[in-house]
Write a structure and sequence with these properties.
By secondary structure, this protein is α+β, with helices and mostly antiparallel strands. The chain contains eleven helices and 14 strands. The longest helix is centred in the middle third of the chain and has 26 residues. The chain binds N-oxalylglycine and nickel (II) ion.
Length: about 350
């Protein structure tokens, strides 16, 4: 049977409304099927284990080395001295909090559909009966600039559009800087990765603002199930006060402790593919809690939708043949957009079925 990808398979329920209704047991649909041990054992939540923190204002050569090391060992790191103004980070978070604090009716005006996902949403994937995550989101296109349609962005609070615009510009610059650092670390020309992604004008950029409401039974559900990000780089601005992000390190989940004013950077599947597995996109998930809701801004720095992504020729050798077939990013992302999120199953299923 063909799946209808034009609309959601079931009536949409906003998790925030569920949480606000004061229920004490969560509906069955939100109960994660992932075994509790995998779901919640953050074996290392001691203060002494955290993802690497890198000062982007330090010695450039040392920065390249440290970023490269973090990408190979973790696929995740935090950056400080990243050049994005702290007041802009604060206001970007504040306007989105205000958006989610509006009435249900005001938010419904932006209700999204699975055709583009733009707008206010509560699920990923269109499979009927799927288990759902404990979160709502707002998703918007930022790059290429031709897709930046501000009339689809909330106009309340009145400062939202300008704050998001300014924030996005700065984050795109930061993403570009990190792409150069990665190119250099891989021994490629400085602009290699940017060009592979479609160049400055071509690259894709989307913002996903995640809202994780309080949950009366946080141990039974997840804010986001384990997944790797399908795109290039993710620049995540986490909540200042509430943690929840966990990153897979070997067989363990590590709770990330966000530093004030830092960004969390992680690599997506497209960089795993272009680097021919020198870098790995790493699985992560979000846990929720019963005390506070949480807001995070995930900016996805992606390849242009119709650009073909494949292992860099420079990184392919006789000993290390291309591990992945060539696919456009649109072809790649169709999977997550219909089936929802599912660990690293997609990039793993492509491995070694290369077409040459
Ligand atoms: C995502 C994501 C993590 C977080 O949006 O892809 O992994 O902390 N978010 O909200
Ligand atoms: Ni993610």
């Amino acid at each position: 049977m063909m799946m209808d990808c034009q609309k959601w398979p079931e009536p949409v329920i906003r998790v925030q409304d569920l949480a606000d209704s004061g229920l004490i047991t969560i509906p069955k649909r939100y109960i994660s099927q992932i075994p509790t041990t995998t779901r919640h054992n953050a074996s290392f939540s001691h203060d002494d284990v955290n993802i690497p923190v890198i000062d982007l204002g330090g010695d450039p050569e040392e920065t390249v080395r440290l970023v490269g090391e973090a990408c190979r060992e973790w696929g995740f790191f935090q950056v400080v001295n990243h050049g994005v103004r702290h007041d802009l980070m604060r206001s970007a978070k504040a306007v989105w909090r205000e958006f989610f604090n509006q009435t249900a009716e005001a938010k419904e005006e932006f209700a999204n559909s699975p055709v583009t996902y733009e707008g206010y949403g509560s699920r990923l994937g269109v499979q009927k009966g799927a288990v759902l995550d404990w979160s709502d989101y707002f998703f918007l296109h930022f790059m290429p600039a031709s897709l930046r349609n501000k009339s689809k962005w909330p106009a309340i609070p009145s400062s939202l559009r300008e704050a998001v615009d300014e924030y996005g510009e700065e984050v795109v610059k930061l993403g570009g800087r990190i792409m150069k650092i990665l190119s250099e670390n891989l021994g490629l020309q400085e602009d290699y990765l940017l060009n592979a992604f479609g160049g400055e004008e071509g690259i894709g950029g989307c913002l996903r603002v995640n809202f994780y409401p309080k949950c009366p039974q946080p141990d039974l559900t997840l804010g986001i199930s384990p997944h790797s990000d399908p795109g290039g780089l993710t620049v995540l601005l986490p909540d200042d006060h509430v943690s929840g992000l966990q990153v897979r390190k070997d067989d363990r989940w590590i709770s990330v402790k966000p530093l004030p004013n830092a960004f969390i950077i992680n690599l997506g599947d497209q960089l795993q593919i272009v680097s021919n597995d020198i870098y790995k996109s790493v699985e992560h998930k979000v846990v929720v809690n019963s005390k506070s809701d949480r807001v995070s801004l995930a900016f996805f720095y992606n390849p242009k939708s119709d650009v073909v992504i494949e292992p860099a020729k420079e990184l392919v050798t006789k000993e290390r043949p291309p591990l992945y077939p060539s696919l456009t990013f649109d072809q790649y992302r169709a999977f997550i957009r219909t089936k929802g999120i599912c660990g690293k199953s997609q990039v793993q299923s492509l491995m070694n079925c290369n077409n040459n």
